[in-house]
Amino acid sequence: MNQAKIQFSDEAKQTLIFFTESAANFKKEKMLLKAVMRKIDLIKQNPEYGNSIPKEQIPDYYKQKYEVKNLFRVELPLFWRMIYTLKKETNEIEIISFVLEIMDYKKYNKRFGYKKR
User: N or C: which end of the chain has fewer CB within 10 A?
Assistant: First the structure.
């Protein structure tokens, strides 16, 4: 199988830019940037690397904004999450892994409707 192509949403790009700009001065951002890049390499090799999120649990936000039919979650250090979907290119046998968001657990819990204990 060929490697998957990776694309980032604007939201994911902004987070990645923040990590990149902050990595030189802050250990947390450096660790998260390194983890994201490592996970991206794994997704390129195996597009279904992440945990599949059941269709009924996909937030309406992603269905409406990105028209997703599938969703995967990858855990990052410090309780951060990376959310991505897979799309097939038309007229090609190429899978696009589209990174939608990179977020901390508070935003993840809110996005997926999880309640505090």
Answer: C
Say which CATH topology domain 5-111 has. YaeB-like fold (3.30.2310)
| pLDDT tens track for 63-113 | 999 889 999 999 999 999 999 999 876 655 456 778 888 999 889 989 998
CA distances from 96 to 5, 14, 39, 80 (A): 5, 20, 15, 22
The SS3 assignment for 24 reads coil
The beta strand positions in the chain, using DSSP E, are 5-8, 51-52, 72-75, 81-88, 95-103
Q: Domain ranges for the chain, please list them.
A: 5-111
State the DSSP H helix or E strand holding residue 106, giving kind and residue range, or none if neither. helix 105-111
Alpha-carbon dihedral sign for residues 61, 66, 70, 72: negative
